[in-house]
Design a protein that fits this description.
The chain has about 170 residues and is mostly helical. About 45% of the residues lie in helices and about 0% in strands. The protein has seven helices and no strands. It has helices spanning about 10-15, 20-30, 45-50, 55-70, 70-75, 85-95, 100-115.
């Protein structure tokens, strides 16, 4: 709805944005020039994030992204928006001398920013994961635990017990 005057980990936590990954979001916002070193919004961010019309936002946000990734756009021009992940990873690894994992993350970040700028798709926001509760141990033994296998071990399983397998 509005861009906060100061963006820090606490601000992101209060907004429920990127739990436990606040530092990554802050670094991206700093990289694209939305916030300064102290986390305060920049004049450019105020202008871009105050647009009511999505098309106006995307146009100005695309300019912020393009300026931040100037080397990529100098090399690929506007085709950079549509580069596949493999080419982006190669570019980032070569340019920054990074590992494959870092290159993948840089490519994914660029693709997300491109999607927000109207070039490509923006992935659906992941719903928060519910903690998995361990199932209580059964009081009695499983009814199939000690029953011999119907094929009396001729199948090569070697255990002689029935094997119930369930996939979820």
């Amino acid at each position: 709805n509005s861009f906060p005057a100061t963006v820090n980990a606490e601000t992101l936590k209060q907004l429920g944005i990127a739990p436990k990954n606040e530092s990554y979001v802050i670094n991206v916002l700093r990289f694209i020039g939305a916030i300064d070193k102290e986390g305060k919004q920049t004049e450019k961010a105020v202008t871009v994030f105050s647009h009511h019309d999505d098309a106006d936002f995307q146009k100005d946000f695309a300019e912020m992204v393009k300026a931040s990734y100037s080397q990529l756009f100098a090399l690929h021009k506007d085709a950079a928006w549509e580069l596949p992940a493999g080419k982006l990873i190669g570019f980032f690894r070569t340019t920054d001398k990074t590992t494959a994992l870092v290159g993948q993350r840089q490519a994914a970040t660029f693709q997300l920013l491109a999607g927000l700028a109207g070039h490509g798709t923006v992935p659906e926001q992941a719903s928060p994961k519910q903690p998995i509760k361990p199932k209580a141990a059964k009081a009695g033994k499983d009814k199939n635990e000690n029953q011999p296998n119907k094929d009396d071990g001729a199948s090569g399983t070697g255990s002689g017990r029935a094997r119930d397998v369930g996939l979820t």
